[in-house]
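Um, can you check?
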Amino acid sequence: MGAKTLRETRNDNNGDDNNISAPGPTWNEALQAALVLRKYVGTIDNAFAHKLEVMLGLFRQRTCAIEIQGFKDT
């Protein structure tokens, strides 16, 4: 379930609008952040950095796949 959906369906503020959180980043902003992190992590040579680099790559692939699934054939 997406963060936006969770935020919209969450009902823990008891009618008080003071707890409204700011909207999360767009998928494009998240991808840009992941790419920046991946470039930085690529300069570090240890096991954790390599695992993080792989996870960031998978995040990018899955995010792009989800976006492509949303496109309609014309």
Summary: The mean pLDDT is 77. Residues 4 and 24 are 7 Å apart (CA to CA).
